Amino acid sequence: MRMDGKALPDLCAEVLDALTRRDDHAYGTAFEALAQRADLADEAELSAAVAVLGSALAGISLGNGGDVARLTGELVYRGGDPTPALAPLALRVADALERAARFVTRWHELGDGELPDPADPDSIPAVLGRLPAAEHGLAEAWFSADPWSSGLLLPLQRPAVRSQLPHRDRLIAVAGAGAEDFGAAFWLQGLLRVLDDEPLVVLHRETGAGYELTLGGVGDNFQLHTLLAATLIGDPAHGLLPGTPPHPAWIAAATDGDPQPANTIHGQFNLVDAHGEWIWNEGVPADIPAVDGRRVVVLDPPPYPRAWNTGRGYPLMRPALTLDRVLPADEAARWLASVAPASVAPVSAPLA
């Protein structure tokens, strides 16, 4: 407990007040105290603090609010109730990214060539000097879209937050458009497409085996590849696939261990969809097309060695891949009869 006894909501109010007054010293003092108190706060105190910050998110300026957005996301990730803050945070992130996109268009209309570095605050005066006063808000968005977007990165690694997120389609559109310019938008677009409680049918063409699984919290198909091997390779007497299971360090990297194991992760399949198109590891499970309401993955032998270094792209997001049912032979055969043979990979295809 801090000697002054200040609770987290009070410290959040002090941070907001210091930001409003542009008092850097008071801001730094309050923020340091807040960081210390957050380590001691229980769920109720975290939730009360999120409510304080959430009430400020709608009205604070984009230029002043990046730290508030990130702080809100941190407290939600720690266990605070996201309800008071998630809608205003999502709306402000979408607005910042949309305005930043208009800034890009306007900058190119001015013929000023290379875009300014959005992480370089020293360039702000020169940028404002190139724009009429009425368009200064576009520049403000350009320099603040990344920290605002960062506010969603931690909380969206919790499934309960993902399930509540409003304005998802709008965010997907603007995060995709901003992914080249803002690192946070790049990672945000991936989180926005994460599937939870998603039914999956997996077929092994060589043996004729089939499985029903439920997928959640998987960030990309590299991770899915490892998890499928870890879940389905085992004792054929129990309906599982022959082969060597992934190394425990690879499984840990794909679940809750060090995302970058000491040894390179190796793939054991070629993933193909129901239409015969290759499922690239660089993609995400949401890219896999559904058939009769279920996404279908066909496991074929790998046509060449595949290896990668990182087990999961979102270190704090815990995946779930559960084997619900081994399909009876006749049911698996019907599924396999309905899927197309694997296509030949395009020449320009990725190597992983």
Major sheet characteristics: 6 strands, mixed
How far apart lie the N and C ends? 50 Å
DSSP helical segment count: 13
Number of strands: 8
Structural class: alpha+beta
Q: What percentage of residues falls in helices of 4 or more residues?
A: 40-55%
Molecular structure report:
- The protein is of the alpha+beta class and 352 residues long.
- The chain has 13 helices and 8 strands.
- The chain has helices at 8-21, 24-38, 43-57, 62-77, 83-109, 124-130, 136-150, 159-164, 168-178, 183-192, 221-232, 248-254, 329-338; strands spanning 198-204, 209-216, 265-266, 270-272, 290-291, 294-300, 307-308, 320-326.
- The strands form 2 sheets. Strands 1, 2, 4, 5, 6 and 8 form a 6-stranded mixed β-sheet that branches.
- β5 and β6 form a beta hairpin.
- α7 (136-150) packs across α10.
- The mean pLDDT is 94.
Structure characteristics:
47% helix, six-stranded mixed sheet, two-stranded antiparallel sheet, 352 residues, globular, alpha+beta, single chain
How do the strands and helices of this protein lay out in sequence?
Blueprint: H1 8-21, H2 24-38, H3 43-57, H4 62-77, H5 83-109, H6 124-130, H7 136-150, H8 159-164, H9 168-178, H10 183-192, E1 198-204, E2 209-216, H11 221-232, H12 248-254, E3 265-266, E4 270-272, E5 290-291, E6 294-300, E7 307-308, E8 320-326, H13 329-338
Parallel strand pairs: 1-6
Antiparallel strand pairs: 1-2, 2-8, 3-7, 4-6, 5-6
